Amino acid sequence: MKLYGCKGCGSAAVEVMLQLADIDYQFVDAIQWTPYQRHADLEKLNPLGQVPVLVFDDGTVMTESAAMMLYFAEQVPGMIPDDAAARAAFYRWMIFIPANVYSVFALRDFPARWVEAEKAQVAFREKSTTQLRAYWQMMEAQLQPSPYVLGSNMTALDIYLAMMSRWAPGRQWLGEQCPKLVAAIALTEQHPVVKAVWERNFG
Questions:
Q1: What's the mean pLDDT when you consider all of the chain?
Q2: Can you count the helices (H) and strands (E) in the chain?
Q3: Is the dihedral of CA 160, 138, 126, 46 positive or negative?
Q4: Which of 10, 27, 173, 199 is a plausible cystine mate for 169, CB 3.0–4.6 Å?
Q5: How many CB atoms lie within 10 A of CB 103?
Q6: What does the DSSP assignment read for 129-170?
Q7: Using CA atoms, how far apart are residues 53 and 104, in angstroms rounded to an integer?
Q8: What crossing angle do the helices spanning 192-202 and 11-20 adopt, rounded to 10°?
């Protein structure tokens, strides 16, 4: 199996899930940010030119980090809650994150794709960051970690949120405004697999 990703990108959480599932994989560094350059095969596999992309041994291609997280969560005991209410919350927030939080980065990180004037791009990026903060505050208000996001066990949602916390609006802001979530994330990041993958991706 090949995982096309890049340092600090959405592939980080997928790496964690692959390792927890004890699946051998080859990591393909598919995006270089300086200078910006994509792997030659990336757009052939994903027309959006985005990572992560998984290529299974039989050639099956999977895109979208949330799909990968859910797929491998089924193979790792405890990654999906057993309790019905917690399981419903799990699926709710696992879809909320890519539909709302993750989608903002496609806009925020490349404002020139959407608005032309430099001043408008700066304003666009600022508005995007404001929206990210609003989404995190929604989650902080509605989730009650104890000690993990959905209860006593770490789930794939904890890993996904921990990865997202490494991006904008930043850990300092999150620590000040979303202390409950940050406490759960800090606990998640103590897991040896998460810790090792994060060290490689986020330093």
A1: 96
A2: 10, 6
A3: positive
A4: 173
A5: 13
A6: HHHHHHHHHHHHHH---SSBTTBSS--HHHHHHHHHTTSTT-
A7: 19
A8: 150
- Check if the beta carbon of residue 90 is closer than 8 Å to that of residue 151: no
Strand 36-38 with 31-33, pairing = antiparallel
Q: Is 22 helix (H, G, I), strand (E, B) or coil?
A: coil
- Say how many residues make up the chain: 203
How much is the pTM?
0.95
Which of 48, 35, 39 has its CA nearest to residue 2?
A: 39
Coil vs helix vs strand at 5:
strand
Which helix H or strand E contains 112, and what residues bound it?
Answer: none
At 145 the pLDDT is 98
| Residues pairing with 26 in the sheet | 2
